[in-house]
Amino acid sequence: MRALEIGGQTVPVSELFYSFQGEGMNRGRRALFVRLMQCNLTCGYATPPGRGDMTIRGKMLCDTEYTWNTAKPGFGDGARQLMPVQVWEELLGLDPATNNPGLTVNDLVIEQGDAHVIERVLV
Predict the structure, then answer these.
(1) How many CA atoms lie within 13 A of 21 on its CB side?
(2) What is the pLDDT of the chain when averaged over all its residues?
(3) Domain ranges in the chain?
(4) Which pTM was predicted?
(5) 106 in helix, strand or coil?
(6) How far is CA 63 from CA 29, 53, 66, in A?
């Protein structure tokens, strides 16, 4: 990931955290996670929800709806607007290797959320 400053542009960040990747070819690896507030997928909804009482339908249900569905009361309350360089600095602070020279620096960052924001600002 390159930490870029793009004309003062910020991204809506729901969560930044350190954990282990739980799926795919990187399963079990240490990872830093970036969850953006917006999401261009509508898992379980026919269209993006506009009300908190909309019914979820479909085969694929979102397990992180709390990070993006602002139509539901309380969802999205913790979102912060951060510059990409701020995201990067916070991720470095979350990596245990930053303060422990005995650990290999984490090289896996998992970005989740609005693919359009990720493409435009973070990558």
Answers:
(1) 18
(2) 75
(3) 11-122
(4) 0.69
(5) coil
(6) 21, 17, 8
